[in-house]
Amino acid sequence: MKKSNNLHLASFQWALVTTIGISIGISLAHFFIPHYYLVIHGFLRRIYYIPVILTGLLCGTRKTVYLVGFIAMAYLPLVLFQWDNHQLPANLEELYEILILGCVGGITGILSDRERKKGSELREAYHDTIIRLAMAAEYRDDNTGAHLQRISRYAEVIAQNLRLPPYQVGLIRLAAPMHDIGKIGIPDHILLTDRKLTDEDLAIIKTHPEIGYKILKDSQSPLLKMSAEIALSHHEKFDGSGYPNGLRANGIPLAARIVAVADVFDALTTSRPYKKSYTIDESTKMMGKEVGSHFDPKVFEAFIRGIDEIIRAI
Fold first, then answer.
1. Cβ atoms within 10 A of the Cβ of 126, count?
2. Can you give the residue ranges of every domain in the chain?
């Protein structure tokens, strides 16, 4: 969404600068080109349609109204002025053209707004489906989905503090809840037990990253591609001692390194049938001892800088 807003703003600024340039050109033409060269003046006036239509398509109705208003203020004084060989009836014809320009821009903006709204609704439905798919894996031991919401927020704060582009931050926020989707393939008698797990149980649980990756892989969606990376690699460790592939350092996808920190922090600060919850201070101190071995130092530092925001999300 932020990326979309930035794109609209940049497009509007471009259109405004273009229109200012056109206005200056038309003004100079009024001064230096005799008005019996009507073809030239007609051509210059019609250039206005280019930025207006583009603004309508890219930015919507509101900014198009602003742009047409600017055109009217810049151009109308020239229209109303009594030029030689360019008397008032001809000027009134140009006034009608300004009105038509406003109508064209307005209609373009309205149609563009409708398409953008449909696209936004489709994206929201898509994102909602992703979250509900993640909740399906968590439902057996966290049917509120609170864990997913916390992981999403923690990962978003870390990504922001790493100064990642807004679009990438948004992807990480949406993809993070998919980290344990592979647990949907782990039997209940292992996943939900409150007894001590055997080596065989642990081996089965450690297959969930690959299960999650198989569920999510081969999609053309950037969101699902990142989700697949996170699902596969969020249990990798910075020193290469993690699983399933023993990746190390920058060989681990950044999104997975971010979610690793978020996931461990949430696990430590949340009580489970088989463990108590730790305080914030206890959790961060425990995690601090694992920096450089389990956690990427830069990611952990970004996590600590955002700890106040993270606490508010608990």
1. 13
2. 2-119, 141-313
The domain 141-313 having CATH identifier 1.10.3210.10: the answer here is yes
Q: One-letter amino acid identity for 8?
A: H
Cis status of the peptide bond prior to 177, with omega within 30 of 0: no
What is the pTM (predicted TM-score) of this model? 0.69
Q: Is there a contact between 131 and 148 (Cβ–Cβ < 8 Å)?
A: yes
Side-chain-facing half-sphere of 284: CA atoms under 13 Å: 13
pLDDT digits (tens, 9 = 90+) for 190-231: 887 777 888 899 999 999 999 999 999 988 889 999 999 999
pLDDT in tens, 90-116: 556 667 777 888 888 889 889 888 888
Record the tokens describing residue 60, joined without a space: 């919507």
Section 1-23 average pLDDT: 60
* CA 94 to chain CA centroid, nearest Å: 43
C-alpha 63/C-alpha 81 separation (Å) is 28
Can you list the pairs that 238-244 forms with residues at least 24 positions away whose Cβ atoms lie under 8 Å?
238/292, 238/293, 238/294, 238/295, 238/296, 238/297, 239/292, 239/293, 239/294, 241/293, 242/294, 243/206, 243/209, 244/206, 244/207, 244/209, 244/210
A 10 A CB-CB count for 219 gives: 12
